[in-house]
Fold:
Amino acid sequence: MQNAFAKTEAIIDHLLHDISLAFGVPCSFFDRTGRTLGCCGLESRSNFCRFIHFYDTEQICRQSYLQSFKETEGSREPLIYFCPFGLVNVTFPLLYPGKEPFFVTTGPLLYTPADDQLITNVMALNYSLRPRAKEVRQLLGEITVKEESKVTSMTSVIQNALKGMTHQLTMGKQTTKDGYTDAAESLRLWLKANPDQEEDAAFARLKENALAGEEIGDLCGEELAEVFLTFSAFIFADAPIKTVLHRACRYLEFLMELAKNSGMHPSYFFHDDEIDVDAMIAAASKERLGRELSRINYVFIRQYLQCHELRNRDMIFRAMHYIRSHYNNISLGDVAAVVHLNPTYFSNCFKKATGQSYSSYLNKIRIEESKKLLLAGDSLAQIAQQVGFSDQSYFTNVFKKIEGVSPKRWINAREKMEVPF
Structure:
């Protein structure tokens, strides 16, 4: 790793310096284990990140970085994502033959200035931060704010620059197949050589009933393990080793399909460091195969649930950002479509993640915006229409429910400095 980095250090550091100056964002350079190889710009990481990392005993920030590395390595495309604390980051893969992959990150950024809801979300993730709300607010205020469209444009420019650098480093050599491609090919060969129609019904039930649709993310680790163990019992039912091995291969193929359908590139799970497909296929006894399959189940459950948790947080922050940008003309269906979920399931996820309903959050955003218009002197009827309420009476009732006073009393108290803004 050190030799590979030594050969590219000057080129990458120079590029990171240019990116940081051009876009005003910090940049970092990692290997696939999360070890920092280089940093540039704005003291490399924000003060907020350093503050959070000090209290992040569960290393959820590190987990989100590692997940982004694996996803970009699999897709070979940059990933714009929300970190667990609601800040925007971008990860770019640097992949070229004969060398370990590297990853460039830019961020953190914010699409909109930090508000009370973001601060609440940050403190909800770590109880030790609750007495430090003032510091959290101050440090979030230092984060660079860029509109979503500008972040997208920035990502495109940086991606092109990195592609040019990668071309320079590879000198036109072809990239090699990844571990997932090799694993999938091994499975396809086994399934082709060992056709067995008798198990189709059992695997169909597994797909349709046990792990179908979005609900898998609602299962805890113990419940998911029970599902896998139940099906593993079928795999090892009275049968010769060849039949058992064929069932195990079909089961592993199903796990690959499940990972892919869940939006996670299968290489996140299926590489030699985690799941060794060849070792499973080479098992000469049911006992050895049982040990390999138990390990596969353990690795898959651990990685799947970790990925699902991080993806859920990213999904919730994307939904919140969309709500803040479209609060005056929006529906639950609109927001659910943005994060590719059906409205009922999204509504349940949102309530579970934030502790409040979609409609409650939307109303809070609308009331926040209405305060600015009240201070500007707009009429209640105008404000109600501009922030998305159906009529003035409904707006007044919601305002009073959230703020404890009517809009008129709030503005009067505000002018007398009796209430905070």
